[in-house]
Amino acid sequence: MITYYTEDTSFAFKEKRLTNRWLKLVAESEIRRLGDISIIFCSDSYILDVNMKYLQHDYFTDIITFDYCEGNRLSGDLFISVDSVRENASFYGTEFADELNRVIVHGILHLIGYDDHAEEDIAVMRAKENYYLSLRTQV
To answer: For the whole model, what pTM was predicted?
Structure first.
């Protein structure tokens, strides 16, 4: 089950049903099933606090993923800074909704086990993001 929350932002996410179907498709395509996933939309300052408190990282980021997966069942918390997503969308010349969906699937891919630290891993992650973003319109 996917649940949506907001912390320290007035952002209202309106595409919950579509996103739920889409993420179920992503999980099934990777031979996984959805467990309990919380998507928490927050501000830059909130995600910075989470980053410092739990990861000891003193910098802003667009997403922090906490993995609670068991076996092939995807479970975790995705903290997403809508401030950073908005800034990234402007920087990359994309629509806010497109960038937000990229960040959401990025978090799900982390739960599946994909990493983005080495250049090779980043390329695989970006290819997966692009592929699953292309499927979003088909659900």
So the answer is: 0.96
What's the structural domain count of the chain? 1
Length in residues, the chain: 139
pLDDT at residue 139 in the model: 82
Q: At 124, which CATH number?
A: 3.40.390.30
Terminal CA-CA length for the chain: 17
Domain that holds residue 103: 2-138
The pairing of strands 73-81 and 63-67 is antiparallel
The strands making up 2-7's β-sheet, listed across from edge to edge, are 2-7, 33-42, 73-81, 63-67
Residues 6+ apart with CB under 8 A from 67: 75, 76, 110, 111
Query: Residue 14 burial by CB count (10 A; 0-12/13-18/19+): exposed, middle or buried?
Result: exposed
